[in-house]
Each structure stands twice: as structure tokens, then as C-alpha cells.
Design brief:
It is a single chain. It is built from twelve helices and eight strands. With 294 residues, the protein is an alpha/beta fold. 45% of the residues lie in helices and 13% in strands.
């Protein structure tokens, strides 16, 4: 039975760009080193927060190789590999180079809105096409379809290498239903920073975090305290983050965290269209919050 190794603080890694819009590999190098030194337990690369739809294949390969080399086995690496064409995802799984990668994050098919049976067959086929552990990614706000608890549990029971779900449905009731009925080797991972604290309290194994890009030390401390049963100190850190959680997503992701990292002097505040930078009012509020960092 395959066990889930993606626990604790996972970093949903951004892609920094230069002022002229090229991938800023030196900034990415510094960012990964900063996160490794400040509590990152694993990395999630080339997914939503990394603006992956706007990257070329050459850029994605370069980023993957850079992360693998820099991490050097210190922590697990999860890589995005999903889509709404099952055959195309399977082809990528069979032909792409996954050396140095420890697992696949596969998002629910978007736009074409399959049924629950369609979702089940899609992920079952993906799991059968790879020997790597698979983490399902349920984010109905982006995909237009919700992977229901019973479908998640069915996949967890039927596919030995489906080891976790990144749950970003926003429903603690759904999370609780999965945790109540899942097999022992399967985990729920929070896909929402603001819900990481209550989801871990329900039994989640960690979070794939956006804010962890900028504040890994503080956020990982909250997670470790809570997992060690030190609930009250963890709750205090959670409440100190509340304003930042809201600001990070008010103008879309990763605009908020890029503004935060820019304010910290780590990257340029540049995104690729169709995404744009946060509004000046949001930027100022982020700046004010950072003045009172934990």
C-alpha cells in the first residue's frame, strides 16, 4: 500500500518574472532556498499558483529541473499534471521526464463539467498510467465541478497509488465526510490557507499553501504546533494571519502573494496576462500588514 508523504507545509510555488516578463530563475533559486531554510516540508510545482498555463514547455522543464536540483531530495516534490482531456494527461504521464519527482497533483477536469462517474473514470485512468503517487485536486471554484466526498473515497479505496486529495471546496462538512470514511493510507490536504487550521483540527495532514511562499517560518510553526496538540498557540498564529489571508486573494491568486513577496524585496511584482498585479489599495494594505509580521 502506497503511503502519502506530502504532509505538513507544502509550498504552492510561484513563478517569479523579470520586469520584461521572462522567468526570473535567480529569484526562483533564492525563493526556494529561503523556503527550504524556513520550514517547507514539500513543494508543489507547476500548478495554479505557478501561473503554469502561461508557461512554455521549455520554461516548465527548466523550472522542474531547477527545483529538483536545488531541493536535492531534502523534501518531496509534487508536480502538476492534469487537464480536461484524459488521453492527453495519460500521454504526458507516459512520455514526460518525472525524474526527481515524488508525486503527481492532478486537478479535476475543468470547463467540460463531467459527472461523478466521469471524474471517477478520469482519475482511475490517470492513476493506472503512472507508478507515482497521485494527489487529487478538488477546486470547484476554478473547475466548475465538485469532486464529491463519496467519489474521493471510492477512488482512494480502488486506486492504491491515489494517496491524498488537495481539498479546496471550502466545505468543512465535505472534508469531514472524506476523513470519516477514507482508508488509513489516504490523506486530506488543505488547499486553502484560511481553512488550514480548522481542516487540520478535523484530521487533515497539512496544507498546500500560497502564503507559505512568503511566510513559511510562521505558517509552518502554526501547523507543527497544531499537529503536536498545542491548539491554543496555533490558534493565535492563525488569527494573526486572518487579514493577510483575505488580502492575498481579493485580487486573485497569485497576485496577492506576489505583491507580498515584492514588498519583502524578493521578486518583481510581475504576472503574465491574463493575470495582472493587485490594486494599489490592496498593495498598501499588504504593506501595512507586513509591518506587523509575526
Amino acid at each position: 500500500m502506497v503511503q502519502n508523504i506530502f504532509k505538513g507545509l507544502g509550498i504552492a510555488l510561484i513563478t517569479p518574472f523579470t520586469e520584461d516578463g521572462a522567468v526570473d530563475y535567480p529569484a526562483l533559486n533564492k525563493l526556494i532556498t529561503y523556503q527550504l531554510n524556513n520550514g517547507a516540508d514539500f513543494f508543489c510545482i507547476l500548478a495554479t499558483t505557478g501561473e503554469t498555463p502561461t508557461l512554455t514547455q521549455a520554461e516548465k522543464t527548466h523550472i522542474k529541473n531547477l527545483v529538483v536540483e536545488l531541493v536535492g531530495g531534502k523534501t518531496p516534490i509534487l508536480i502538476g499534471c492534469g487537464g480536461n482531456n484524459t488521453a492527453q494527461v495519460i500521454e504526458e504521464l507516459k512520455t514526460a521526464d518525472f525524474s526527481g519527482i515524488d508525486g503527481i497533483l492532478s486537478v479535476c477536469p475543468y470547463y467540460n463539467k463531467p459527472s461523478q462517474e466521469g471524474l471517477y473514470q478520469h482519475f482511475k485512468a490517470i492513476a493506472a498510467a503512472t507508478s507515482l503517487p497521485v494527489v487529487l485536486y478538488n477546486v470547484p471554484g476554478r473547475t466548475g465541478v465538485n469532486l464529491k466526498a463519496e467519489t474521493t473515497v471510492r477512488l482512494a479505496k480502488d486506486c492504491p497509488n491515489i494517496v491524498a486529495v488537495k481539498e479546496a471546496s471550502g466545505s468543512l462538512e465535505q472534508v469531514d465526510e472524506i476523513i470519516k470514511n477514507k482508508p488509513a493510507n489516504f490523506d486530506v490536504i488543505s488547499g486553502d490557507d484560511a481553512l488550514a487550521f480548522p481542516m487540520i483540527a478535523c484530521g487533515a495532514a497539512g496544507v498546500i499553501s500560497v502564503i507559505g511562499n512568503a511566510l513559511p517560518k510562521e505558517f509552518s510553526r502554526m501547523i507543527r504546533l497544531e499537529m503536536n496538540g498545542e491548539i491554543e498557540p496555533a490558534r493565535k498564529i492563525h488569527h494573526k494571519f486572518t487579514d493577510l489571508f483575505n488580502l492575498l486573494f481579493v485580487d486573485g491568486n497569485p497576485a496577492g502573494v506576489k505583491a507580498m513577496l515584492h514588498e519583502m524585496g524578493m521578486i518583481n511584482n510581475v504576472l503574465r496576462l491574463p493575470l495582472v498585479s493587485t490594486r494599489l489599495t490592496t498593495m498598501q494594505k499588504i504593506s501595512d500588514c507586513l509591518k506587523f509580521r509575526l
